[in-house]
Design brief:
Strand content: 25-35%
Strand order of the largest sheet: 1-6-10-9-8-7-2-3-4-5
Number of helices: 8
Helix content: 10-25%
Largest sheet: 10 strands, antiparallel
Number of strands: 15
Distance between the termini: 91 Å
Order of helices and strands: HEEEEEHEHEEEEHHHEEEHEHE
Structural class: alpha+beta
Length: 298
């Protein structure tokens, strides 16, 4: 047998093994519970009844971390604006009104879902057993659940995610686009602006032209701040910003602790909420330089 014949046989064997491997992979994928096709017809439904949106006073998002501890973000509405708390920093902060409103809108839209399984024995396979699932609860002012959804495994191959409601055992599939809201990032849920909309009353368009702050952080206030700035707003509100650090940290940023005095036009509950914000965030050297041009140093 000459060398050319040996090379041809070797190439043929490699191609055969590659095809065989692809067929085996396809077989394995079809055996996975979330990849099985179902003959169940689509069902038109919504995660949240659109008529119940006015009843939603808070939204709790939670997920267990690797050691089993449940981490959560709770958004709550006071008057015309949303605020939030999180288990990561343990602070209260102004929430991004646009993202909160959009999430309610997305969850109240009529969508097509398909049944994946009909009993609780399948919960673990689809990741909706509560151990690794992502739970969203829409609650009324008394804390009673208006709607609770438990999201499980994502099937990226078919662009869908498994879920069930808190009141049913049936597991369904829905479009995976909802996944962008299934996160516990304060960078996503917190108001991103140095001058939060809850305080200023700015429209989203006007707020977009203002400076943005960095990531929220846990911070124990200590001694005297390195810099202190104040700013008054057109609606009678005011703010004081305590700046800590001299940008010699590894990321070259400062820590900012804001204090707010709400305008007199707000309701008493709105004022108390704004006064109760106790969050801190990082601010880059560049942002601080721009910020110092807009405020008055004390």
């Amino acid at each position: 047998m000459n060398e050319e014949t040996k090379r041809k046989r070797k190439r043929t064997l490699i191609i055969f093994l590659a095809l065989d491997g692809l067929l085996l992979l396809a077989f394995v994928l079809t055996c996975l519970p979330w990849a099985k096709r179902t003959s169940e017809p689509g069902i038109s439904s919504a995660l949240l009844n659109v008529n119940r949106i006015p009843d939603v006073a808070s939204i709790t998002l939670s997920k267990a971390d690797e050691d089993g501890t449940r981490q959560e973000i709770r958004l709550f509405k006071t008057g015309s604006f949303w605020s939030g708390t999180d288990s990561s920093t343990g602070t209260t902060w102004p929430a991004d009104n646009q993202n909160a409103a959009k999430f309610l809108e997305v969850c109240s839209q009529i969508i097509t879902v398909k049944k994946a399984a009909s009993d609780r024995n399948s919960w673990n396979a689809f990741g909706v057993d509560g151990k690794s699932s992502f739970t969203v609860s829409f609650n009324d002012p008394d804390g009673k659940a208006v709607s609770e959804i438990i999201f499980g495994e994502s099937d990226y191959l078919n662009s869908r995610i498994a879920f069930r409601t808190g009141s049913q055992e049936t597991v369904y599939f829905m479009d995976i686009s909802i996944e962008s809201y299934l996160n516990l990032s304060t960078s996503f849920w917190a108001d991103p602006f140095v001058y939060p909309q809850a305080l200023t009353g700015y429209s989203r368009l006007k707020a977009e032209s203002a400076l943005r702050h960095g990531a929220l952080t846990s911070f124990a206030r200590h001694e005297k701040a390195d810099y202190t700035f104040k700013k008054n707003f057109e609606n009678g509100a005011a703010a004081r910003f305590l700046i800590y650090g001299d940008a010699d940290d590894s990321d070259g940023s400062y820590t900012v602790v804001p204090e707010f005095i709400p305008g007199e036009h707000l309701e008493a509950t709105e004022k108390e909420t704004i006064k109760g914000y106790d969050y801190a965030y990082r601010m880059s050297r560049w942002t601080l330089e721009k910020f110092s041009e807009e405020v008055e140093q004390q």
